[in-house]
């Protein structure tokens, strides 16, 4: 083993930890310790820390002190249990289970029944009085150990098990007798020897040590890394390993295993939720290979254990003050708690549960706000199926994760990924999913399984990802080899359209139309809180949004270029417009007018073009100021890449060449081609645009400023309250801004004099170039506000064009872990963010009252909103649909910083 000079403690008994040690003991270990401290029935055991895992992953070997510490804790466990690991006549058996700080369901490895061997299986049979149980446990160990530790293809074991059932003419493994299982053990051992090149280890301590290392290694499997990237879990945390004395749910009908939730993770409603499986071990439940019974059925199966479980669930929920996800086993009428954690839930459940816990006095409003997030709110704003539409119902399963998903049926992950990359929307259909299906689940619009329940792998992972999921649709016969699904007399072939409703569990043939989300209707003022389920959700959203609005410091504006978008944004809670892109006003029929302006040869031609544009611009601004009356409207002066307003050079060249070959060349086309050649740019994004265009084309920005000023004067004379802000784009030096501002101030004074109005128009700039950020102190001398254009700032800091690179190498960068997330989606804090922070500090040092905002797409990204709160911006601006998300996250950022200050 590698040398480790640090005498730190690597192993903790369950009696030594607590729930606050998740960094060290992982979530599972910390919560096992917490339940032990609460006096709940937890099988004795110990946890190997995440620090030991980090040493192992860095050096390729476990730390020197670890073996001795494990030996000491194992000896104490053996003394407590009165038996030794693998003892021939009465073996102590243990499980070795992973447990990272953040829940990663099914992504890392577990091995049960460690300590069984050819010698000890007979002892277990004698002590338990059940030979079948002993051999069933042994075949499970060889199967799990072979796949997890020795890398044997799990399908080989599954095929042998299916063959044994077929030979016995039974359909479930519980119908196999002890003699059948003895034969299966022999087959499994042969598979291990053939595939792994070694015999199955008979030494119990070797089994345990190899399993511990396998759990460490499972931290860096492809599926675990993919899941971490998807959930944005840091890759350097490592996993703890929990070694726990075995309790057995496969000892007959008075034994079993289950998973319980203290509230419904799909809806948030209180009640008895979960799955139970008699005569089974825990992996059987989450794997979904046998259909479970509802947890409520346990009351009639084992009333004593049921009542005890209900009391424990209440204790845990009150202690953790949240929805708890619980794993338990009943061994011959004795209830044992194997795990608890704060449970994953759907977006709707998150909002309902947060407000329920406030009403119960378990948490306050500030904590409720932290229990939800913008990504969940965005999910609630997606459309749902139209229940009034004509549909063809195929079947019904368990509503595992809500949403309305439509796509082509596919029956394996490879096809799901392939078709999705080709632009197809797909529904991944499986008998049950396993961790190897993760990539396909990510690619699919939704997941449908014929087996499993709300606690199966498919359900848990789908809820975590916010994917629509229907599980346990037993009427559906899924044939993955023939790539089809059969329901009664109906056959769904691969490629056929299906629709799944994760809120009701219904599965439909074909495409079902969708209708707006009730949450969107609420934000638009078309729905109010009432009594039914949708209204209950709306009421919960309303309460949390109201609190977020009360506590947030950041204001939220909209990116909107017309009155229609502005009015919608206002309904969604926008407090102004942070970005009106005037170039969008010149598309369509007006494009030719701008083309004439750009190509004008004489002052007269240019002034004619400007005169034609002025009244159109003024009318645009009047509508915009009216829709946002009383709120600020930031108008960005024209900032188009020049090619957007010029004829395509290739098409024009071909037209001229053809005309010349016919000897009927058009003088206008020849002149136009000459001008386009002159203005043609290899990289228009870095060319003649923004402030540069305003300085090169005399009168262009003056015309726009005059239109803004006259529109503001018009509104003011109509008793309105226009609050226009003029933004100069793509400034790189203060001199550019000074020249444009001087001209703008002169135009505004002329309009004030002509209209007899006092216009309080402010003039600022976009900070979207690295040089502007680095010279922000100088630029602030001429600017009354900054708005960070983080889209272009990201392009210019990284040196790549978004339109080009996202399609070319971003996928590879995300897969290799170079990007945890696209820098266009969430702000790059170390690079772009550092420039924003620097510009904020320098700008405010020059002008303490400098107003600061952001108008790039990051303004609606939850994580980025927290960063903008932290650096001290005054507002964020985003698309209308993202406004509620930004409002919520601005409130969460404020509540979070208040909590940090109080600590």
Automatic annotation (TrEMBL):
It is an enzyme of class 2 (transferase). Its EC number is 2.7.9.1. SUPFAM superfamilies: Glutathione synthetase ATP-binding domain-like, Phosphoenolpyruvate/pyruvate domain, Phosphohistidine domain. Residues 539-890 form the PEP-utilising enzyme C-terminal domain. Its cofactor is Mg(2+). Residues 66-291, 298-348 form the Pyruvate phosphate dikinase AMP/ATP-binding domain. Keywords: ATP-binding, Kinase, Magnesium, Metal-binding, Nucleotide-binding, Pyruvate, Transferase. It catalyses: pyruvate + phosphate + ATP = phosphoenolpyruvate + AMP + diphosphate + H(+). Pfam families: PEP-utilizers, PEP-utilizers_C, PPDK_N. InterPro entries: ATP_grasp_subdomain_1, PEP-util_enz_mobile_dom, PEP_util_AS, PEP_util_C, Phosphohistidine_dom_sf, PPDK_AMP/ATP-bd, Pyruvate_phosphate_dikinase, Pyrv/PenolPyrv_kinase-like_dom. GO terms for molecular function: pyruvate, phosphate dikinase activity. It comes from the Bacteria. Residues 424-505 form the PEP-utilising enzyme mobile domain. Belongs to the PEP-utilizing enzyme family. PANTHER family: PHOSPHOENOLPYRUVATE DIKINASE-RELATED, PYRUVATE, PHOSPHATE DIKINASE 1, CHLOROPLASTIC. This is Pyruvate, phosphate dikinase.
């Amino acid at each position: 083993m590698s040398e480790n000079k640090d005498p730190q403690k690597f192993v903790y008994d369950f009696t030594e930890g607590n729930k606050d040690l998740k960094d060290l003991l992982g979530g599972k270990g910390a919560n096992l310790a917490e339940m032990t401290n609460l006096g709940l029935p937890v099988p004795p055991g110990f946890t190997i820390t995440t620090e030991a895992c980090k040493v192992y992953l860095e050096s390729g070997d476990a730390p020197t002190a670890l073996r001795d510490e494990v030996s000491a804790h194992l000896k104490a466990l053996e003394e407590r249990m009165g038996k030794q690991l693998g003892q021939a006549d009465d073996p102590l058996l243990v499980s070795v289970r992973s447990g990272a700080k953040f829940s990663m369901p099914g992504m890392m490895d577990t091995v049960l029944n460690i300590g069984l061997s050819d010698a000890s299986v007979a002892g277990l049979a004698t002590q338990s009085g059940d030979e079948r149980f002993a051999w069933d446990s042994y075949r499970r160990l060889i199967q799990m150990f072979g796949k997890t530790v020795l890398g044997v293809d799990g399908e080989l074991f599954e095929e042998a098990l299916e063959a044994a059932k077929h030979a016995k003419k039974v359909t479930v493994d519980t119908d196999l007798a002890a003699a059948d299982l003895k034969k299966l053990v022999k087959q499994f051992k042969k598979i291990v020897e053939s595939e792994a090149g070694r015999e199955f280890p008979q030494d119990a301590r070797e089994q345990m040590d190899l399993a511990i290392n396998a759990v460490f290694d499972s931290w860096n499997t492809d599926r675990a890394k993919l899941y971490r990237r998807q959930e944005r879990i840091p890759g350097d945390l490592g996993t703890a390993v929990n070694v726990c004395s075995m309790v057995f749910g496969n000892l007959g009908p008075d034994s079993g295993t289950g998973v319980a939730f203290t509230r419904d993770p799909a809806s948030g409603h209180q009640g008895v939720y979960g799955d139970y499986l008699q005569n089974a071990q825990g992996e059987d439940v989450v794997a979904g290979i046998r259909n479970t019974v509802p947890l409520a059925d346990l009351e009639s199966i084992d009333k004593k254990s049921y009542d005890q479980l209900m009391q424990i669930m209440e204790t845990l929920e009150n202690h953790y003050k949240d929805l708890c996800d619980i794993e338990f086993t009943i061994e011959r009428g004795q209830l044992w708690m194997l795990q608890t954690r704060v449970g994953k839930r759907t977006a709707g459940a998150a909002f309902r549960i947060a407000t329920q816990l406030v009403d119960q006095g378990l948490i306050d409003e500030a904590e409720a706000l932290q229990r939800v997030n913008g990504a969940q709110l965005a999910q609630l704003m997606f459309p749902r199926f139209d229940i009034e539409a004509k549909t063809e119902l195929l079947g019904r399963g368990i509503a595992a994760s809500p949403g309305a998903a439509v796509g082509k049926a596919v029956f394996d992950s490879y096809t799901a990924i392939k078709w999705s990359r080709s632009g197809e929307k797909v529904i991944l259909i499986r008998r049950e999913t396993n961790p190897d299906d993760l990539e396909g689940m990510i690619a699919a619009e939704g997941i449908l399984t014929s087996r499993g329940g709300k606690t199966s792998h498919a359900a848990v992972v789908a809820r975590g990802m916010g994917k629509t999921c229907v599980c346990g649709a037993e009427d559906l016969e899924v044939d993955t080899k023939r790539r089809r699904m059969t329901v009664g007399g109906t056959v769904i072939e691969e490629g056929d359209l299906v629709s799944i409703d994760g809120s009701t569990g219904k599965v439909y043939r074909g495409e079902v139309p969708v209708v707006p989300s009730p949450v969107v209707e609420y934000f638009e003022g078309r729905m109010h809180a009432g009594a039914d389920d949708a209204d209950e959700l709306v009421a919960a959203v309303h309460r949390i949004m109201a609190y977020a609005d009360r506590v947030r410091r950041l204001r939220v504006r909209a990116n909107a270029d017309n009155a229609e978008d502005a009015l919608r944004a206002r309904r969604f809670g926008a407090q102004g417009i942070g970005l009106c892109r005037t170039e969008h006003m010149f598309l369509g029929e007006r494009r030719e007018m701008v083309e004439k302006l750009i190509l004008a040869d004489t002052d007269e031609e240019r002034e004619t073009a400007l005169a034609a544009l002025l009244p159109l611009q003024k009318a645009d601004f009047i509508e915009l100021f009216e829709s946002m009356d009383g709120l600020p409207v930031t108008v960005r002066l024209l900032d188009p890449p020049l090619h957007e307003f010029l004829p395509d050079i290739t098409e024009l060249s071909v037209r001229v060449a053809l005309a010349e070959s016919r000897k009927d060349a058009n003088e206008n086309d020849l002149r136009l081609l000459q001008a386009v050649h002159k203005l043609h740019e290899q990289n228009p994004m870095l060319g003649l645009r923004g402030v540069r265009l305003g300085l090169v084309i005399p009168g262009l920005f003056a015309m726009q400023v005059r239109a803004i000023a006259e529109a503001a004067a018009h509104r003011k004379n109509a008793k309105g309250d226009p609050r226009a802000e003029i933004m100069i784009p793509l400034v790189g030096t203060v001199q550019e801004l000074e020249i444009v501002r001087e001209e703008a101030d002169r135009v505004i004074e002329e309009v004030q004099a002509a209209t007899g109005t006092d216009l309080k128009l402010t003039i600022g700039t976009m900070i979207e170039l690295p040089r502007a950020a680095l010279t922000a102190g100088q630029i602030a001398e001429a600017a009354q506000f900054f708005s960070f254009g983080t889209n272009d700032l990201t392009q210019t800091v990284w040196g790549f064009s978004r339109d080009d690179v996202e399609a070319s190498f971003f996928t590879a960068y995300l897969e290799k872990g170079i990007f945890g997330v696209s820098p266009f989606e969430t702000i790059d804090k170390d690079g772009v963010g550092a420039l924003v922070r620097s510009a904020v500090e320098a700008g405010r040092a020059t002008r303490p009252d400098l107003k600061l905002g952001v108008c790039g797409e990051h303004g609606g990204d939850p994580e980025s909103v927290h960063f903008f709160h932290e650096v001290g911006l005054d507002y964020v601006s985003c698309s209308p649909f993202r406004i509620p998300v930004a409002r919520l996250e601005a409130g969460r950022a404020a509540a979070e910083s208040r909590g940090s200050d109080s600590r």
